[in-house]
Design the sequence.
Protein backbone atom coordinates (compact mmCIF):
# COMPACT_ATOMS: atom_id res chain seq x y z
CA UNK A 1 0.00 0.00 0.00
CA UNK A 2 1.31 3.45 -0.93
CA UNK A 3 0.39 6.62 0.95
CA UNK A 4 1.59 10.20 1.18
CA UNK A 5 2.28 11.51 4.69
CA UNK A 6 3.23 15.20 4.72
CA UNK A 7 5.97 15.26 2.05
CA UNK A 8 7.00 11.66 2.70
CA UNK A 9 5.98 8.93 0.26
CA UNK A 10 5.28 5.74 2.23
CA UNK A 11 5.01 2.26 0.76
CA UNK A 12 4.24 -0.63 3.07
CA UNK A 13 3.81 -4.16 1.77
CA UNK A 14 2.82 -5.31 5.25
CA UNK A 15 -0.86 -5.49 6.23
CA UNK A 16 -0.91 -4.30 9.84
CA UNK A 17 -4.67 -3.98 10.29
CA UNK A 18 -5.19 -6.75 12.82
CA UNK A 19 -2.05 -6.30 14.93
CA UNK A 20 -1.71 -3.32 17.28
CA UNK A 21 2.07 -3.78 17.65
CA UNK A 22 2.58 -4.02 13.87
CA UNK A 23 0.51 -0.85 13.42
CA UNK A 24 2.57 0.89 16.12
CA UNK A 25 5.87 -0.11 14.48
CA UNK A 26 4.59 1.14 11.11
CA UNK A 27 3.53 4.46 12.66
CA UNK A 28 6.81 4.71 14.55
CA UNK A 29 8.85 4.10 11.37
CA UNK A 30 6.91 6.86 9.64
CA UNK A 31 7.38 9.18 12.63
CA UNK A 32 11.16 8.55 12.62
CA UNK A 33 11.28 9.33 8.89
CA UNK A 34 9.23 12.51 9.36
CA UNK A 35 11.19 13.67 12.43
CA UNK A 36 8.09 13.58 14.64
CA UNK A 37 10.08 13.58 17.84
CA UNK A 38 7.20 13.86 20.31
CA UNK A 39 5.44 10.79 18.86
CA UNK A 40 8.67 8.79 19.07
CA UNK A 41 9.37 9.96 22.62
CA UNK A 42 5.88 8.97 23.80
CA UNK A 43 6.72 5.31 23.10
CA UNK A 44 10.15 5.16 24.81
CA UNK A 45 10.89 4.11 28.37
CA UNK A 46 13.00 6.44 30.52
CA UNK A 47 15.90 3.97 30.35
CA UNK A 48 15.64 3.21 26.61
CA UNK A 49 18.83 2.02 24.89
CA UNK A 50 19.30 2.64 21.16
CA UNK A 51 22.17 0.66 19.67
CA UNK A 52 23.17 1.98 16.24
CA UNK A 53 25.33 -0.94 15.12
CA UNK A 54 28.78 0.18 13.97
CA UNK A 55 28.21 3.75 15.15
CA UNK A 56 27.15 4.40 18.76
CA UNK A 57 24.88 3.43 21.62
CA UNK A 58 22.48 5.98 23.09
CA UNK A 59 21.31 5.41 26.66
CA UNK A 60 18.34 7.10 28.30
CA UNK A 61 15.33 8.99 27.02
CA UNK A 62 16.98 12.44 27.23
CA UNK A 63 19.97 11.33 25.13
CA UNK A 64 17.62 9.56 22.71
CA UNK A 65 15.74 12.83 22.19
CA UNK A 66 19.01 14.76 21.64
CA UNK A 67 20.00 12.36 18.85
CA UNK A 68 16.58 12.70 17.20
CA UNK A 69 16.93 16.49 17.30
CA UNK A 70 20.41 16.24 15.71
CA UNK A 71 18.94 14.08 12.93
CA UNK A 72 16.34 16.68 11.93
CA UNK A 73 18.56 18.04 9.14
CA UNK A 74 18.23 14.76 7.24
CA UNK A 75 14.79 14.43 5.78
CA UNK A 76 13.35 11.30 4.22
CA UNK A 77 11.56 11.63 0.89
CA UNK A 78 10.47 8.00 0.60
CA UNK A 79 10.02 5.17 3.08
CA UNK A 80 9.54 1.63 1.81
CA UNK A 81 8.62 -0.85 4.55
CA UNK A 82 9.18 -4.43 3.42
CA UNK A 83 8.42 -6.39 6.60
CA UNK A 84 7.06 -5.84 10.07
CA UNK A 85 7.37 -8.81 12.40
CA UNK A 86 6.17 -8.97 16.00
CA UNK A 87 6.15 -11.73 18.58
CA UNK A 88 5.65 -11.34 22.31
CA UNK A 89 7.76 -8.43 23.54
CA UNK A 90 9.85 -8.06 20.36
CA UNK A 91 9.35 -6.67 16.89
CA UNK A 92 11.29 -5.62 13.82
CA UNK A 93 10.88 -3.47 10.74
CA UNK A 94 13.04 -3.54 7.64
CA UNK A 95 12.99 -1.49 4.49
CA UNK A 96 14.65 1.35 2.62
CA UNK A 97 14.74 5.13 2.85
CA UNK A 98 15.45 7.71 0.16
CA UNK A 99 16.88 10.79 1.89
CA UNK A 100 16.76 14.42 0.78
CA UNK A 101 20.43 14.23 -0.32
CA UNK A 102 19.35 11.43 -2.74
CA UNK A 103 21.15 8.83 -0.63
CA UNK A 104 19.45 5.43 -0.32
CA UNK A 105 19.78 3.40 2.86
CA UNK A 106 18.52 -0.02 3.85
CA UNK A 107 17.56 -0.49 7.48
CA UNK A 108 16.42 -3.04 9.99
CA UNK A 109 15.23 -1.93 13.41
CA UNK A 110 14.74 -4.54 16.14
CA UNK A 111 12.55 -3.44 19.05
CA UNK A 112 12.24 -4.79 22.58
CA UNK A 113 9.12 -3.74 24.45
CA UNK A 114 8.80 -3.42 28.24
CA UNK A 115 6.05 -6.06 28.16
CA UNK A 116 3.68 -7.93 25.90
CA UNK A 117 0.60 -5.72 26.25
CA UNK A 118 -0.38 -3.72 23.16
CA UNK A 119 0.54 -0.33 24.66
CA UNK A 120 3.90 -1.41 26.15
CA UNK A 121 6.70 1.12 25.70
CA UNK A 122 9.98 0.42 23.95
CA UNK A 123 12.99 -0.30 26.17
CA UNK A 124 15.58 -1.09 23.47
CA UNK A 125 16.15 -0.58 19.76
CA UNK A 126 18.92 -2.13 17.71
CA UNK A 127 19.33 -0.44 14.31
CA UNK A 128 21.25 -1.74 11.32
CA UNK A 129 21.67 0.88 8.58
CA UNK A 130 23.53 0.33 5.31
CA UNK A 131 24.09 2.88 2.53
CA UNK A 132 23.03 1.32 -0.76
CA UNK A 133 23.88 4.15 -3.17
Sequence:
Amino acid sequence: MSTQSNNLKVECTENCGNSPKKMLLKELSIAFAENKISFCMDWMTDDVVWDLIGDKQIQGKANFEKVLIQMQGRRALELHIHNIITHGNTGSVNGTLLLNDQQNVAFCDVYNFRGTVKNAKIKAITSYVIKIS
The beta strands are 2-5, 8-12, 44-52, 56-59, 76-87, 90-99, 104-113, 122-131.
